[in-house]
Amino acid sequence: MNGNSSNNSQISYIAVEGVIGAGKTSVASMLAERLNAKLILENFEDNPFLEKFYMNPDEYAFRTQMFFLLERYTQLQELHQKDLFQNFIISDYVFEKDKIFAYLNLSDDELKIYEHVVQGLDKNVVIPDLVIYLQSSVERLMTNINKRQREIEKEISEEYIENLNDAYNYFFSRYKSSKVMIVNCEEVDFVSNPADFDDLVSEIFRSDISAIKYYNPSLRKTAE
Fold first, then answer.
1. Where are the domains of the chain?
2. H-helix or E-strand containing 194?
3. What is the reported pLDDT for 6?
4. What counts of helices (H) and strands (E) characterise the chain?
5. Cβ(76)–Cβ(125) below 8 Å
6. pLDDT above 60 for 103
């Protein structure tokens, strides 16, 4: 376990968030390994409607959304059971972000059904102590998506990522449920550069994290 973890003992559940291609799963997995944490990853490949949604959003949006909603809810129910051998929990999503996709993709009639269902689920979900939002440009997100060559993502358009990126920025700049660290990822590589990741871990466990904290690693590099 990293020695910095003692600096902010109030943090035990961290959710890493970001638009498709931001690297949230990689960062969440690395954090879980560093902290010997319980790791919860979104099983997007299990959604039988996702690839069809990217090809035909109007036809498959509602089914895709409801599958994700119920799957995420089921996964996060595990957090009600305390693991005595692990002090930290890391996930690569927050339950509430489901609403970003819902309001972006569903029709008004579909939203009424969605809201009716989600109201009964929200109150039973454990809220993270800290959300790390990996913020990036559309250009870099598209580069990352194209580079990893996932079959399920081949139909994703730049317009969709641009709209999603705007929605994420709006959502997490106003997120109130827990502390948020918004990380500018334009000029860093947490996977390939150990120093970048070490600095991120140190920043997470600083004692001065406020309701919303902005962290730009490139400014630190410029100062050096």
1. 15-223
2. helix 194-204
3. 43
4. 9, 6
5. yes
6. yes
Crossing angle of helices 98-105 and 57-76, in 10° steps, is 160
The owner of tokens 């569903």 is 106
- From its phi and psi, is residue 14 left (phi > 0), alpha (psi between -120 and 50) or beta? beta
- The span from the CA of 88 to the CA of 4, in Å, is 13
Binned at pLDDT 50, 70 and 90, residue 8 comes out as low
List all residues 6 or more positions away from 215 whose beta carbon is below 8 Å from its beta carbon: 181, 182, 183, 184, 200, 203
> pTM value?
0.89
CA distance 68 to 50: 9
User: How many residues are listed for the chain in this entry?
Assistant: 224
- Characterise 208 by phi-psi region: left (phi > 0), alpha (psi -120 to 50), beta (else): alpha
Tokens representing 149 are 């060559």
Kindly state the average pLDDT of the residues 155-161: 95
* Whole-angstrom distance, CA of residue 210 vs CA of residue 53: 38
**Among 64, 59, 19, 32, residue whose Cα is nearest residue 204:** 32
Tell me the average pLDDT of the chain: 90
**Looking at the annotation, which residues are catalytic?**
92
Does position 81 have pLDDT exceeding 80, yes or no? no
Look at domain 15-223 and name its CATH class: alpha beta
Q: Please say if the pLDDT value at position 48 is more than 70.
A: yes
Inter-CA distances, 123 with 90, 119, 129, 131, Å: 20, 8, 16, 18
- Give residue-wise pLDDT tens across range 209-221: 678 888 998 765 5
